[in-house]
Write a structure and sequence with these properties.
40% of the residues lie in helices and 20% in strands. It has helices at residues 55-65, 68-84, 88-91, 101-104, 113-120, 141-154, 169-176, 185-188, 195-210, 223-232, 254-274, 294-303, 324-328, 349-357, 383-399, and strands spanning 17-18, 21-22, 25-33, 39-47, 95-99, 128-133, 157-163, 180-183, 214-217, 236-237, 287-289, 309-314, 317-323, 341-344, 368-371, 377-381.
Length: 400
Amino acid sequence: MTHPLVRQPGVIPLWLWNGTEPGVTSWFQPIVDLRDGEIIGYEVLSRGQGSLESPHELFTHARTSGYTWELERACWTSALRSISRFPEELRQAPFFFNVSPDVLSDPRFGDGSTLELLELHGLGPRHLVLEITEKAVIEDGALLQRLTRECSAQGFGLALDDFGAGHSGLVTLVHCLPRFIKLDQALVRDIHLHDYRQHLVKSLVAFASSVDAILIAEGVETWEEMTVLLRLGIRHAQGYLLARPSPQPKRPSESFETRRREAMRALLLREHADDTTVGGLVIRRTTVESSTSLDEVKKHFHDAPQVDHVVMMDGARPKSLVTRRGLASSAQGHVPLELPLIVEDQMAVTALVELAMSRATEAVYDPVVVTDAQGVFLGTVTMKQVLLRASELAARHEMK
């Protein structure tokens, strides 16, 4: 048989269609605005049957079997049927649909059948955001630009998915000009332990703001990740911490909402003072337990050439500092511990400059360790950061 929505002749396998029923089911995961807890949309996730339940296995099997387009139609049909049955307030979401570049460039995507499928279920392009994955991009930039412009002209929203996962994300970004940029979970995972990632995400936050794009962190699973992401300026997120995918769209739990409000309240208090205090400069750096051996510390520096220092911890509190410079000049057999300058995050930047520059000559430019009022480690700031911010504040004062 040939299903009416499938253009390829021949027998369609049961894992794709069983009569008029698609062989996939649709699940929905909320994307949340962390400022107010409101849901800005739902990502649509597809599940297959049996050994093909996993999305990765399902789409890999379709690609190797030559059924990528047919699977895409099955996924869309399943999702749109589900959405059409939701209450009116839920149908306005919008819904984020993953679209692979080979499907987007397939002539059948733009021949009117996609719009017909939407209309059949009482929906239109304004209800959908097309997520173009960065893991498999269209090599022809001009083609990508033309296709995405056509989608935008029809009313579809555009998102760049998995940003940071592939080698050509920036090229894809400038060609498709997405309204949403979704950070790949590889950047998000354990971000509180990786200062390099934090610097990158902080830069992306500034970029997204300058082009009026919404940056979404995917795969958020822990409060440690969430706290650092909030500090860096991320305001939209999805992941297991917020809510797991489900057949019916759900809001995050009350327990999450309570902690979200607490986190945002603390952040807003900090942001109010961050303009002139150390807290706004903090980056969470690499930490190790105070019992870590010399060989293990050396391995940390060897494995991460960009790391300039690590903080030795006693539980949640900073104990000492190890710099790459100090390690290189140390005697054999022991970790070259340095007693760092430790300040609270509410200290004024100008006060820190005076305090830091009064240190011994060899330590003047060492990083400064920052804690909260309870002495819990937040991160460190470099003297370059401190001096630059002090210069900015001085220039601002002169302009008044």
